[in-house]
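Quiz preparation item.
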């Protein structure tokens, strides 16, 4: 299998070249030239697989045999050895119509661990094979940074710099990143919001001279490996529920800001997973909800919410969906994205909107509704939701019905967002790993929202002996 850009101006690449490219050199996003389709019979055979073995089955469609099977198997084993649950992403049954996929059992208690523990191993493997230092550069709205740092800290041949919006992540998210004092880690706290951080990252990856000089590699979901690794748990969740009850199709409710997790589900559906609807849960930064409901993709005013990991106005992975929505026409994608850059919006007509709404629903959750859902599920089911997970449940309650089964994603442990939990007088016991963060010193450099200032910090970091 080869990989191409959504904008069509990059020669087809192999798997490892695609991993290393991250953002495509033409400014687009890399996608597989063809999406493999899994039969219903194969899905049935996969029901007995462990998470790790399922991961290997799915990745084998995409790696082009560029990584020997035993090497890949070793990376997968190492990636998930630090997870606190042997199932990696266990499914909890709330009712016969609602199941929760717990994605927070990794080292940083967030769903980003599922992909980024593997990416850390993969980058380390590639660095050793190619004999070059890899500089990982990424932006985070909170969870990606901590998971990426945990995935590569101390690894030979890799340095990582993460930009996060200063004072706009939860305290635990901040501590998970900034209490790391390893020589190969740099934390930059940017005076701005996540979109500002992400904008600088895209500019730097678009500067091909700078990117090539410093061997820049991406850990954000612009990197297709992130998308593919997340696709695995859609299959796993479906297979676990299918063991319990008869399924024809299934819905998923996904807290989303950058559209990466949702696109992973869209990829799973195109591979043959019998998904009925992908329900997108946003917060008050609701660009995705507006698009699904009105056909207008346009950013609005940035708002700080109880679910800060979704405080995003420009969803990077939307372009991947746009490619398939436009019939895999890269020229049209380029025209749409150019128009978005110039005019600040994309508008589709009523007929096209019907096509979108046939596959997606979306609900923007206000802060008050988020807290209400947390309190309700604690009282009625003795299940404590974090604010992002609560948004997913609120979206499920908005669109779910008695004839459909839904899996809603628990994207983070509630201890990561105790600021919100305390607002409804719920006291929780912190895991020991989070409790100990509170007494550790922090290491971060606060910078202005300035590309020049950030580049100066990066140059100094890369030039260290």
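Solution:
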């Amino acid at each position: 299998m080869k990989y191409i850009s959504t904008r069509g101006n990059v020669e087809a690449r192999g798997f490892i070249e695609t991993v290393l490219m991250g953002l495509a050199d033409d400014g687009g996003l890399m996608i597989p030239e063809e999406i493999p389709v899994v039969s219903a019979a194969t899905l049935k055979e996969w029901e007995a697989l462990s998470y790790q073995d399922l991961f290997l089955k799915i990745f084998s469609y995409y790696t082009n045999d560029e990584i020997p099977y035993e090497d890949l198997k070793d990376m997968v084993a190492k990636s998930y050895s630090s997870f606190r649950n042997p199932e990696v992403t266990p499914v909890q049954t709330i009712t016969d119509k609602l199941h929760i996929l717990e994605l927070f059992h990794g080292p940083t208690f967030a769903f980003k661990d599922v992909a980024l523990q593997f990416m850390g191993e993969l980058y380390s493997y590639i660095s050793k094979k190619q004999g070059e230092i890899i500089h990982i550069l990424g932006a985070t709205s909170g969870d990606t940074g901590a998971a990426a740092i945990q995935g590569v800290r101390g690894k030979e041949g890799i340095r990582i710099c993460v930009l996060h919006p200063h004072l706009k992540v939860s305290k635990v998210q901040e501590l998970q990143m900034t209490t790391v004092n390893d020589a190969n880690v740099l934390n930059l706290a940017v005076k701005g919001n996540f979109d500002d951080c992400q904008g600088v990252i895209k500019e730097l990856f678009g500067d091909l001279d700078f990117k090539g000089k410093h061997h820049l590699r991406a850990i954000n979901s612009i990197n297709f490996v992130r998308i593919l690794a997340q696709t695995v748990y859609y299959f796993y969740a479906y297979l676990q529920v299918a063991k319990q009850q008869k399924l024809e199709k299934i819905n998923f409710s996904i807290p989303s800001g950058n559209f990466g997790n949702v696109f992973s589900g869209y990829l799973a559906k195109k591979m043959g997973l019998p998904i009925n609807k992908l329900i997108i849960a946003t917060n008050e930064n609701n660009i995705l909800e507006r698009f699904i409901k009105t056909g207008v993709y346009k950013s609005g005013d940035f708002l700080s919410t109880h679910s800060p990991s979704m405080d995003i106005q420009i969803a990077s992975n939307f372009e991947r969906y746009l490619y398939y929505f436009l019939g895999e026409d890269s020229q049209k994608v380029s025209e749409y994205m150019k128009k978005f850059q110039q005019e600040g919006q994309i508008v589709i007509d009523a007929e096209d909107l019907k096509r979108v709404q046939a596959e997606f629903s979306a609900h923007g959750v206000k802060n008050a509704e988020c807290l209400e859902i947390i309190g309700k599920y604690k009282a009625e089911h003795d299940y404590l939701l974090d604010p992002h997970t609560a948004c997913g449940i609120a979206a499920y309650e908005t669109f779910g019905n008695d004839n459909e089964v839904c899996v809603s994603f628990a994207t983070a442990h509630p201890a990561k967002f105790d600021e919100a939990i305390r607002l409804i007088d719920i006291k929780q016991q912190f895991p020991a790993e989070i409790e100990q963060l509170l007494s550790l010193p922090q290491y971060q450099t606060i910078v202005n929202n300035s590309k020049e200032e950030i580049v100066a910090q990066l140059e100094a970091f890369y030039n260290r002996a």
